[in-house]
Amino acid sequence: PGIATYDPGFVNTASCRSAITYIDGDKGILEYRGYPIDQLAEHSTFLEVAYLLLHGELPTQPQLDQWTHDVTYHTFLHENCKQFIEGFRYDAHPMGMLMASVSALSTFYPDAGTIADPDVRQAQITRLIAKMPTLGAFVYRHQQGKPYVYPDNRLSYSANFLAMLFKMSEPTYQADPRLVKALEVLFILHADHEQNCSTNAVRSVGSSQVDPYSAVAAGVGALYGPLHGGANEAVLKMLRRIGTVDNIPGFIEGVKEGKEKLMGFGHRVYKNFDPRATIIKKACDDVFEVTGVNPLLAIAKELEKIALEDEYFIKRKLYPNVDFYSGLIYEALQFPPEMFTVLFAIGRTPGWLAQWSELVQDKDQKIARPKQIYTGARNRDFVPMHRR
Ligand code: CMC
């Protein structure tokens, strides 16, 4: 019955052709549309990077102005969205609420399923990028038991997001521009990463030609897991559990004995260093200049130092990944740990949509339907209940 290659986890299987993101894991290179990540993080804005991922070129000033206008125009949610967010328990995890809310959005835009029409596709892309921060802020406010703060469209993408989260609790709240910049950098670093687990989920679900809200909801679900986007939350919990620098050697021994993983370390593709981790480490210093140093930073730095000199991690080519330091920044920005992956999801949305858009326009792409190697029984006769 045909030839099947057994490749659990798709370690050696290319599922698509893509012109969006280039990674060389051995050399620690990450490029969006050919532009190195460090240059984009330093010089660009998140909306400019989103445009680049979606359209393949950096926008001209009029193109960027139009794109910024379009995204800003769509930041508000339908009022009914508040009602389904209110249906969640006060202690519901924000990622669970986000996943459900994104999929519910598909019901507000019934035309979204007409994915063959480029104008319809662009409208949903704009809506999703515009509404993700609003949804993220609303689920946070719900969890905190605080009233929702509507978008302030005079502000930039990231400044507006911070205002929707924190403004009402502090009426004088004005995000420090250095913190807004740090959040922009984090969003840019997370914007795409070729065929990672959540993007593969978006492509796989999108290959059935469902609307993009349903496909992106699948991406949010994949990102929720602790081996993927959930790692940043897990890192903070781990650092807190370690508690003091003196406890690090004992913790490392436990990792080497296989009791648990060193969260924020290791990557399927990067076997030398994760270029995003290097940029984040620098952003950490900028943020702590404003907020004061997070005491967990000392534990993280010592943990990194010890692990990088240890034979176990050297042999397996395990290095800090993007999630090792990002949680420390998010915490300094006043986010509770369960919001960290929501921030990752907001950043990754343009990447998911660029990949989805590429998929639905690719004439070679078929519905995702991997083979299996069947290992079960065959040809058994039904056994009536009284004889089992
Ligand atoms: N701590 C301890 N040992 C590890 C770790 C770790 N963090 N990561 C991998 N290993 C070991 C693993 O046990 C295996 O050892 P052995 O050869 O003795 O069996 C070896 O290294 C190879 O690991 P693998 O599981 O085959 O690697 P993978 O490519 O399947 O997994 C990974 C990649 C990211 C899931 C994994 O490194 C991991 O679980 N890391 C911790 C979670 C984490 O930080 N995830 C965030 C990833 S980056 C952002 C994102 O994708 O969201």
From TrEMBL:
Biological pathway: Carbohydrate metabolism; tricarboxylic acid cycle; isocitrate from oxaloacetate: step 1/2
Any Pfam family: Citrate_synt
The UniProt record lists the keyword Transferase: yes
Keyword Nucleus: no
SUPFAM superfamilies in the cross-refs: Citrate synthase (SSF48256)
Keywords from the named record: Transferase, Tricarboxylic acid cycle
Signal peptide positions on this chain: none
InterPro entries: Citrate_synth-like_lrg_a-sub, Citrate_synth-like_sm_a-sub, Citrate_synthase, Citrate_synthase_AS, Citrate_synthase_bac-typ, Citrate_synthase_sf, Citrate_synthase_typ-I
Catalytic activity: oxaloacetate + acetyl-CoA + H2O = citrate + CoA + H(+)
Protein family per UniProt: Belongs to the citrate synthase family.
Protein name as annotated: Citrate synthase
Organism placement in taxonomy: Bacteria, Bacillati, Actinomycetota, Actinomycetes, Propionibacteriales
